[in-house]
Design a protein that fits this description.
By secondary structure, the protein is of the alpha/beta class. It has 13 helices and 13 strands. The radius of gyration is 21 Å and the shape is globular.
Length: 357
C-alpha cells in the first residue's frame, strides 16, 4: 500500500504542529509491513528510510498563495503521479482532485472559538491570528465542506463543532486521541518548587497571564520558586511582556526529552484559552505530574479521570495565583499509585487507523 502524507506547514519551530508530524513519522519508520510512505514536507528535517520517501516543497511553506494553489489545482498532479492508495493531509486542509481515498487531520481551533475570542485586525500582535481565524478559517471550513475527505479530529468537542456547523456529517468524522510514548525514566515522585509551561509564543497561550501571576506572588512575599517557559526573552517582549520577575526562566526552544525532564520536577501550568487538545496535558498526565489547567472543553477531555489536576477559569489571574500559592505552601509530593490508576490506556494511532490495522 502507498500512503502520501502532506505536511508542508510544520517545521521544528512550530511547536505542537511539528510534534504531530514527528510522532506520526516515528510511528511508521522502519516498519516492515510492506507499506510505502511518501512525506511531502518543507525542509530537510525528516530522513528517508527503506519504507519512507521524502519530497521537499519549501515554496509551499513560504507562500500561502502557492500552498492554496497546490491544494486546489497543482497538487493533484504530483500526488496522482505517485498513485497512492491513501492521501493524508496533516495540515487541516484537503487537496482537490485526488483519486485516492483522502483523510484530513484537523487541529486548527481558531475559527471554532469566535464566540468566545475574536482576534482583532487593528491590534498589531493579534493581526496574524485574526487573519487565520476570520479569513483562513472560513477557507478551511469551505474546503472541508466541499471535499469528500474523511476528517480526523482529536476531541469529541471539535467533532460536535463540525457537525453543528454542518461542515461534515458525524459518520465522516473520526475522533483519535493523540498517543505519546514516553520512556519510563520520565516519571514523577517529588516535585521541586517549580512550574513549567511548554508553549509557543502565541497570544492565546496567555504568557502575559503567567508573568502577571508570578509578579503577584513575588509581591506577596512568595519568592522561593521557579517558573520555566519554553520561549525566549525576546519572544516575551514581542508579546508585549516586560519587567519579568527573576523567577521566570526563559529556556527558548528545547527538545522534547528536556520537556519531559521538566515535567518530572515541575508542576504544569497550562494557561492556553484556545486548543484542539493540548499535547502538554497528555505528556504531563503520562508522566504523572501536578497540573493546573485552564477549564476549556479540550482540556477537560484530555484530563478526564486524572486526579492530579486542578482547573481554573480562563484568564482568571486571581484564581491561578491562589492555586499556585496554596500548592507552594503545601507538599510537592505526588502519589505514584494515583498516577498508575489514572494514566490513560493506549489509543489506536493514526497510522493504524489509516491502513486499517
Amino acid at each position: 500500500m502507498k500512503i502520501v502524507v502532506n505536511d508542508v506547514v510544520a517545521t521544528p519551530a512550530d511547536g505542537g504542529a511539528y510534534s504531530i508530524l514527528q510522532d506520526f513519522y516515528h510511528s511508521v519508520e522502519n516498519k516492515n509491513d510492506g507499506n510505502e510512505w511518501y512525506f511531502i514536507v518543507s525542509g530537510p528535517f525528516l530522513a528517508s528510510k527503506p519504507n519512507i520517501h521524502i519530497i521537499k516543497k519549501p515554496e509551499l511553506k513560504t507562500s500561502k498563495i502557492k500552498r492554496l494553489s497546490f491544494e486546489l489545482f497543482t497538487g493533484r498532479r504530483l500526488i496522482n503521479k505517485i498513485n497512492p492508495d491513501i492521501y493524508f493531509s496533516l495540515q487541516n486542509t484537503p487537496t482537490f482532485g485526488i483519486k485516492a481515498k483522502q483523510f484530513v487531520y484537523l487541529h486548527q481551533p481558531l475559527n471554532f472559538v469566535l464566540s468566545q475570542h475574536k482576534f482583532r485586525f487593528t491590534v498589531a500582535h493579534e493581526r496574524r491570528l485574526a487573519i487565520y481565524q476570520r479569513v483562513f478559517g472560513r477557507v478551511i471550513n469551505a474546503m472541508l465542506k466541499k471535499s469528500p475527505a474523511q476528517v480526523i479530529v482529536q476531541t469529541q468537542w471539535l467533532k460536535k463543532e463540525l457537525v453543528q456547523r454542518k461542515i461534515k456529517v458525524s459518520q465522516n468524522i473520526t475522533v483519535i486521541t493523540p498517543d505519546v510514548e514516553i520512556p519510563a525514566i520520565y516519571r514523577v515522585d517529588q516535585l521541586d518548587r517549580a512550574f513549567c509551561y511548554p508553549a509557543s509564543p502565541i497570544a492565546y497561550k496567555n504568557h502575559k497571564m503567567i508573568v502577571e501571576v508570578v509578579r503577584r506572588l513575588v509581591e506577596a512575599g512568595i519568592t522561593d520558586f521557579k517558573f520555566y517557559l519554553t520561549i525566549s526573552e525576546k519572544e516575551l517582549m514581542d508579546l508585549g511582556i516586560n519587567n519579568v520577575p527573576s523567577q521566570v526562566i526563559c529556556l527558548g526552544r528545547i527538545e522534547r526529552n528536556r520537556v519531559y525532564s521538566l515535567l518530572t520536577k515541575s508542576a504544569l501550568v497550562f494557561a492556553s484559552s484556545i486548543e484542539t487538545f493540548g499535547l502538554p496535558l497528555l505528556e504531563a498526565r503520562t508522566i504523572g505530574t501536578k497540573i493546573f489547567s485552564t477549564n476549556i472543553p479540550p482540556a477537560k477531555e484530555a484530563l478526564d479521570g486524572y486526579r492530579n489536576v486542578v482547573f481554573f477559569k480562563p484568564n482568571d489571574v486571581d484564581q491561578l495565583q491562589q492555586l499556585m500559592s496554596q500548592w507552594l505552601a503545601g507538599s510537592q509530593k505526588i502519589s505514584v499509585d494515583t498516577v498508575k490508576k489514572t494514566n490513560p490506556s493506549r489509543n489506536q494511532n493514526l497510522a493504524e487507523f489509516l491502513i486499517g490495522g
